Amino acid sequence: MDIDIPHDLGRDEAKRRVEQGLPKLEQHIPGGGTMTATWPSDYALEMEISAMAQTIPVKLLIEEDKVRGTVSIPMFLKMMSGPISDFIKTSAQKMLTKA
Predict the structure, then answer these.
(1) Beta bridge partners of 61
(2) What is the pLDDT of residues 24-39, one digit of tens each?
(3) Cβ-count burial of 23 within 10 angstroms (0-12 exposed, 13-18 middle, 19+ buried)?
(4) Which DSSP letter does residue 43 get?
(5) What residues contact residue 84 under an 8 Å CB cut-off, 6+ apart?
(6) Strand partners, 59
(7) Which listed CATH number (1.20.1050, 3.40.50, 3.90.220, 3.30.310) goes with 2-88?
(8) Which are the contacts of 94, defined by CB distance < 8 A and separation ≥ 6?
(9) Would you list the domain boundaries of the chain?
(10) What are the φ/ψ torsions at residue 74 (nearest 5 degrees)?
(11) Which residues of the chain have pLDDT under 50?
């Protein structure tokens, strides 16, 4: 599932805000899930969100005017793909709007 989150921050500021928001994100994963995050390159973020004994890989690419993402929902959680995608998109939007 692909998501796009527009912003007008520029790449560096968008990355800074996402980095600052990551520690808070784990606290909001339903069911006491966990998250790991790595930056394989300057503007690419790879996360794994674990919840309900399932792992959800998320890849984000921070661009000049948007954050482009791919969320891979496991078959077991397909029925929840809408809420999961909404959670990730809403979380990223919150990170981008807070200074």
Answers:
(1) 44, 68
(2) 877 777 677 888 999 9
(3) exposed
(4) T
(5) 56, 71, 73, 77
(6) 46, 70
(7) 3.30.310
(8) 21
(9) 2-88
(10) -65, 155
(11) none
**Which tokens belong to 57?**
């890989």
* 34-41 sheet: strands from edge to edge: 2-6, 66-71, 54-62, 44-51, 34-41
Q: What is the CA radius of gyration of the chain?
A: 13
Q: Which residue has the tokens 């919150």?
A: 94
| 11-26 pLDDT per residue, tens | 999 999 999 888 887 7
Residue holding tokens 């968008």? 14
C-alpha span between 24 and 9 (Å, rounded): 20
Q: How many CA atoms lie within 13 A of 31 on its CB side?
A: 9
One-letter amino acid for residue 8 of the chain:
D
- Its pTM stands at 0.78
